Amino acid sequence: MTRRELEDRILGCVVGASIGDSIGGAFEFQMRPYIQKRIGKDWIDEMYDYAGRGHGSYGVWSKRAPAGTGTDDTRMNHIFLEAVIENDGAINAQRLAAEYIRRYLHPERYYPKRVAPLARQHLVDFYGVSCGCLGMECPELPGVPVHALRERSFGLRFPTLIGLLSLACSGCLYKNQPSQAYEKAYELAYFDVGYAKEACGMQAAAVSMAIGGITDMATILRRLRRLDPLKLKGSTLGQYFDDLATEVTSSVLKLTKKAKDSRDLSLLLSRELANKHVFDPLDTLTVCFAANMFAQGDPKKAILIAANHRNVDEAGNLVRFRDNDCTGYVAGALAGALAGCKKLPQDWVNKVLASNKRIYGIDIEKNVYDFCNAVYGKG
Fold it and tell me: What are the backbone angles phi and psi of residue 322, rounded to the nearest 5°?
């Protein structure tokens, strides 16, 4: 693989994530009547603007966000990328935590002044846990012990999507080194608890293989099941990873084999995952792997399957979309890594590059170029 091909896959991973984020973000959690009124059907097949909705600290930072604008998912991804760049590729949990703290304390240094207050509202949730990661007390939470900041201050005591979203592209640190990618993502997910860390590791391992040129999802899933990233096999702890990998990959293989087309796979996924919380990382990871497995190298198809993740009634009719900006985002990261940026729909790519620079001041192409130089040396 040439350096140019590697850079194209990494750019594909980052841009693909933002494409999925923006396609799903315009319709996240919306009910069927809204969807029908907005686009005249119950299946998203194009990139739409936000039509005045979704504005807020975790959503888009503009009341008139254009098509292609990412949500908090895209912004957190670039916090990770920029932390890697700032540290010349030598990233760890403490350095990532320090990046979040700096941005919370001085958002005007990192984002356009007009959106700095929204940035601070978003990042306050990361402040306490980041202080705890660094062994510091948090001025916003006086008297809370450091260990409690580290373990409890994010406010979530169950596995969620925070790490999977923040680190969806972390596998780009290691070209075709899935065990190393897994271990690093597990370490960097300092704001996660329980199997959410495992989900981060599995996504990173899959992306690592994809940017290394392994584009067959069946091969990626087989290798995931054979991994022993934390050297736990043979011990009482080993079953923890084995169970998780088996649960996800078994569901993926079963559903993709049964599905007739994209809409049918979406229906099967909605029924299979109906009892999982919308913020459960296993929900998102299963959709990501299934969409990419079924798409067979077509990144647009994979992203649209994931961005249409939904709840259905007994007859299979849409009730509402689930957290489909997140499923679209994570699936888009893997789809872009598998295909490369050149194979993504170029009108979508152009919208993502332009809108995120305009709204957030994020130069995606420059970030990827600088990230590649920091991690793989100047090309």
Answer: -85, -150
**Range in 50-54, 252-256, 292-296 with the lowest mean pLDDT:** 50-54
According to DSSP, residue 309 is labeled -
Percent helix, strand, coil in the chain, to 5, is: 65, 5, 35
pLDDT score of 247: 86
The span from the CA of 203 to the CA of 219, in Å, is: 14
Rounded to whole angstroms, the Cα distance separating 355 from 344 reads: 17
Task: Characterise 277 by phi-psi region: left (phi > 0), alpha (psi -120 to 50), beta (else).
Answer: beta
Could you give the CA distance from residue 298 to residue 82 in angstroms, rounded to a whole number? Answer: 29
Is the sign of the CA dihedral 291, 352, 170, 57 positive or negative?
Answer: negative
Q: Which pair of structure tokens corresponds to residue 99?
A: 């990046």
Tens digit of each residue's pLDDT (9 = 90 or more) over 13-32? 999 999 999 999 999 999 99
Q: Is the dihedral of CA 111, 112, 115, 117 positive or negative?
A: positive
Interatomic CA distance for residues 36 and 336, integer angstroms: 29
- Sign for the CA dihedral angle at 93, 330, 225, 6 comes to negative
3-class DSSP state of 229: coil
Phi, psi of 173 (to 5 degrees): -70, -20
How is residue 25 written in tokens? 């973000």
- The model's pLDDT over 76-128, given as tens digits with 9 standing for 90+, comes to 999 999 999 999 999 999 999 999 999 999 999 999 999 999 999 999 989 99
Q: What pLDDT is stored for residue 228 in this prediction?
A: 84
Residues sharing a CB contact under 8 Å with residue 96, sequence separation 6 or more, in sequence order: 79, 80, 83, 188, 190
Q: Which residue ranges make up each domain of the chain?
A: 3-376
Q: Which CATH class is domain 3-376?
A: mainly alpha
Predicted TM-score (pTM) above 0.85 = yes
User: Among 278, 276, 258, 280, which residue's Cα sits nearest to residue 268?
Assistant: 258
Of the two residues 379 and 262, the one the predictor is more confident about is 262
Spatial CA neighbour of 169 closest among 356, 286, 16, 67: 16
Convert the pLDDT of each residue in 279-297 to its tens digit.
999 999 999 999 999 999 9
